[in-house]
Amino acid sequence: MSPNYVAKRLVMIVYTLFIVSLIVFAITQILPADAAVMMLGENATQDALAALRENMGLNAPVWQQYAIWLGHVLQGDLGTSLRTGQPVGPVMFEALGRSLLLALLSIGLMLVLAIPLGIIAAVRRGKIADMVVSLISYAGVALPEFVTATIAVLVFADLMKWLPPTGYVPLTENFASGIAHLVLPVCVISVILIAHVSRMVRSELVDVLHTDYIRAARLKGISRGQVLRRHALRNALLPTITIVALDVGYLLGGVIVVEEIFAIPGIGRQLIVAIQARDLPAIQAGVLIMAATYSIVNFIADILYAWLDKRIQYD
Amino acid sequence: MTDFTKRLLRTPQGAIGLFLVLLVLVIVLLGPMLAPHDPETLAPLARYKGPSAAYWLGTDQYGRDIFSRLLIGARATVVMAVLATIAGTLFGAFVGTTSAFLGGRADELIMRTIDAVMSIPSLLFALLVVNLLGSSTVNALIAVAIAFAPGMARITRSVALSVRKQDYVNAAVARGESSAYIILREMLPNVIAPIIVEMTIRVSFAVMLFATLSFLGLGAQPPAAEWGLMVSEARRYMHLSAGILIWPSVAIAVVAVGFNLLGDGLRDALNPRT
Fold first, then answer.
1. pLDDT digit string, tens, across residues A188-206
2. Burial of A307 by CB count in 10 Å (0-12 exposed, 13-18 middle, 19+ buried)?
3. Among residues B226, B217, B216, which one has the least CA distance to residue B252?
4. Which of A16, A23, A143 sits opposite B115 (nearest CB)?
5. Per the CB < 8 Å rule, is A144 touching B228?
6. Which residue of B has its CA nearest to A248?
7. Are B115 and A16 in contact (CB under 8 A)?
8. H helix and E strand count, chain A
9. Which chain B residue lies closest to A149 (C-alpha atoms)?
10. 3-state SS assignment for residue A201
């Protein structure tokens, strides 16, 4: 891995965020909402509206508004919420922290379950274990999160009363209760991830097990378990890094629904509230933060991959 | 063609997938004729009924027949998903093929831009577009199509890149054909098979995305019999009768699994190595 490659990927992140900022700004420009009316209410006088528009720079040409907004963003000022009058940056980042906790726990659970499932399915290809894993993965793709979440609440909270149905308790406040509130959301998010990743692990491992070097290792007299651990898994699990990183895109979409259903004040819920209230600065900040998170995770994954896989020479 | 059908039916995925998709197709075409009850007739005395001879799957919180609502809602859910997938695919395929044909810096620029667009989760993208255009079924269709286009463009490009190197494309370039002719007449037809596989699988994502939009109140509006909306409405009454929640969920699952299996089956059938 050359420094050149890292630099190239960094330039790509900057370009990505630039495009996202353009899209976000364009979308919020077309939104049929007048920021001045939103702040002063429907009954404001024309004079007051005109004065506020002038004050907020809404009369300037669009590209100028974009440049000013971008300048503020680069200085770390993501704007002020039209709904609450508070700066959106700190609110969004605090919400992002809660979402990341949810996402990290889900990825953790997924890794613990999906990789062994994929390995079992590949090693026992065509046997019952393989079919069971296939069935699980189809169940995962068949049910959207809002269905699994609703059913999970019905079964484990309403009927069994094992877990709290919705809500969020900070872990620092009450650890046990905080974890109890996170169990259902984490399980719901993991289901689709497990389905996807176990399927990928299986197909990668099946491919690797058919290569010549695995056959050569077996012919050398190394036991199946040894070959699997020392040769096959290393090569089969590498692409999983990329898959998991790409799944973060899905994950960020998934948390929107799951946070809404379980009433978790994460960035997804903040965004839904912002979108419903047409709170432009909050929408802009939220989308930008989500896209940045995705880009950074994928950057780290690519670097990690290049570092682990010595065969790849990027320039 | 018969040989192809045989290859498709040989795998369990292909056979089950084809069966489920055909079943869904029949329901979409004949659903309103088959429905035993009117989907929007309220029956206050027959609320939360379990399955019976009159109401095969029971009734919902307003006493409406769930089975009839599912049969009629198939159109709203499945047809929209298929249309949105096709629209997104056509646009994405065109961009992907063009990018592969142009190559070099233009290709690099287009692909990096697509990567950038893809860094916004598709559900969020759809939410923004729907909010921008107002929540209605047609707008939800546009939103899902736009959200799908970048992913399809990426896949099409990778297939088109290998087609680009083929002799018949070089021959067309040598003949002095226009870029538009080469992209539309020489390259697109040859990248279609893998795209159809991807498209089939994506219909199931579209069904879910639509259902999710309706669930969040940004797609179909009550009293429509859209399946996602039915699940959403059932949430408040699910402790009174689980059937209101279960049956629309099952319907969504059947469609999603059907298209997924068919896609997997098509991939195997089209892949000469298997």
1. 888 888 888 888 888 888 8
2. exposed
3. B226
4. A16
5. yes
6. B121
7. yes
8. 13, 0
9. B235
10. helix
